[in-house]
Specification:
By secondary structure, this protein is of the alpha/beta class. Helices cover about 50% and strands about 10% of the residues. The chain is built from eleven helices and eight strands. The radius of gyration is 23 Å and the shape is flat.
């Protein structure tokens, strides 16, 4: 990134197939001379409320646009277009009959998609303006600095941390940023470093349980995987099938959920059908030790640990490497 004392580029998360990965959906240079609201003398609580009111309003509009998109783009024209094009490919002799139908559906799908896209762009711009205006005076807005840790150097993050208000520095987001800056991140080839977490019984998880085993930690994001697999429990079935194909008592899957307490963890386990696996959470809010120590920010990220406790690989999303790792018999 090109950056000086007054500029920063932000990366926002989007969904792609099996993974929610950081993409340049929109990026923006932040000019520190325009960050603070015009009357920069309000309380932290007032700035928080202003920012959250704006973001919640944008989120509501985003959800409404998503519903409109699904109704008018996906189901009204997109699905029929896909069916029509498949029918045409299967029966080229019906070209004269089916081509006008295909062209009409595609034309209308593209028209409504463009309308949806313009609304989405407008909402993205509104969100950028909110970040731009409040991220040094609102802890909720300052989360973007933590979330952009892969695109910023620690020096750049520290500069922004010091520019933020005292209340922001004391917020969950401020503490997450400073903890990340002060932590030496683990990389491939390093020894696995354990961290506090609890299991579905509420007890502290004992990381000695992975000793001598090839371990795969799936870091959240099972909901993102369903975009590629369909059924909300498909990721669990996928991992279960991998265990049937390659598994033995020296292979272990651990599913990490970014949840605050045992009840929330149990809800996720029930929702995604991950009862056959070891499921853990750490009670984090803005940040998580697994994010800070291993610098993972996509969902799911996957951490591969060999039988010697060495980090074999860290991937963004569930890639084909998972089968290579499992097929490497001990």
């Amino acid at each position: 990134i090109k950056m000086n004392r007054n500029t920063i580029t932000f990366i926002i998360l989007t969904l792609v197939g099996y993974v929610c990965i950081p993409l340049s959906v929109f990026s923006q240079q932040i000019d520190s001379t325009t960050i603070l609201p015009e009357n920069a003398n309000k309380s932290y609580a007032e700035y928080e409320k202003e920012y959250l009111d704006i973001i919640n309003s944008i989120q509501d509009a985003w959800q409404e646009n998503s519903k409109w998109h699904n109704t008018n783009v996906v189901y009204k024209y997109g699905v029929p277009y896909s069916k029509a094009i498949r029918e045409l490919r299967a029966h080229p002799e019906r070209e004269k009959e089916l081509r006008p139908v295909v062209d009409s559906l595609k034309r209308n799908r593209d028209i409504y998609s463009a309308i949806s896209g313009k609304r989405q762009d407008s909402l993205q711009n509104a969100r950028k303006l909110a970040f731009n205006r409040y991220f040094l005076v609102s802890g909720s807005a300052f989360k973007i600095v933590y979330q952009s840790r892969k695109s910023l150097s620690k020096q750049e993050m520290m500069m922004l941390y010091h520019k933020a208000s005292k209340a922001v520095r004391k917020s969950d987001a401020g503490r997450a940023v400073i903890k990340y800056i002060k932590t030496a991140q683990i990389k491939e080839g390093d020894k696995f470093r354990s961290f506090y977490c609890f299991d579905s019984t509420g007890n502290r998880f004992n990381w000695h349980n992975i000793t001598g085993k090839r371990t795969i930690i799936i870091c959240d994001g099972l909901g993102c995987m369903t975009h590629g697999l369909g059924d909300i429990k498909s990721p669990s079935y996928y991992f279960q099938n991998l265990l049937k194909k390659y598994g033995n008592d020296k292979i272990q899957f651990i599913i990490f959920f970014h949840r605050k307490n045992m009840n929330q963890l149990k809800e996720q386990i029930n929702m995604f059908g991950t009862e056959p696996f070891t499921c853990i959470a750490d009670g984090g809010t803005v940040s998580s030790p697994i994010e800070i120590i291993y610098n993972v920010d996509t969902t799911p990220s996957v951490i591969y640990i060999n039988e010697f406790g060495i980090i074999d690989k860290i991937t963004e999303g569930v890639t084909k490497y998972i089968e290579s790792f499992l097929a490497n018999k001990m």
